[in-house]
Amino acid sequence: MVALSTSAGTPIVTTPKVALAPDALKQMAMQIEPRLPATWDEAGHQWRIVAGRYDVILGGSSRDIAQKVRIRLPEGVLPVR
């Protein structure tokens, strides 16, 4: 499982589980819809990404975390489609 969540632990996106044999390796890619870490700004009528820290988590499940990497996203505004 690979997941992206806020530093408070709120999940944003999670990949499906992949079964691997012991000591097996598999490369995975996760494409994140830009609006997932964004919130709707009613006053500005736009999607706004809140600057902050987000965790990328790798593990067998949410209770079996093997590795966690913290990334920082800058504040941003997304175009309305």
Helical segment count: 0
Quickly give the structural class: mainly beta
Q: Termini, distance in Å? A: 30 Å
For the secondary structure, the number of strands is: 7
Which radius of gyration do the C-alpha atoms yield?
Answer: 15 Å
Shape: elongated
> Which percent bin holds the helix content?
under 10%
Count of distinct structural domains:
1
Helix and strand topology:
Layout: E1 2-6, E2 11-14, E3 38-41, E4 46-49, E5 52-61, E6 64-73, E7 76-78
Antiparallel strand pairs: 1-2, 1-5, 3-4, 4-7, 5-6
If you had to describe this structure to a student in words, what would you say it looks like?
The protein is an all-beta fold and 81 residues long. The protein has one domain (2-20, 28-78). Helix content is 0%, strand content 49%. It is built from no helices and seven strands. The protein has strands spanning 2-6, 11-14, 38-41, 46-49, 52-61, 64-73, 76-78. It is elongated and about 50 Å long. The model has no long low-confidence stretch (mean pLDDT 80).
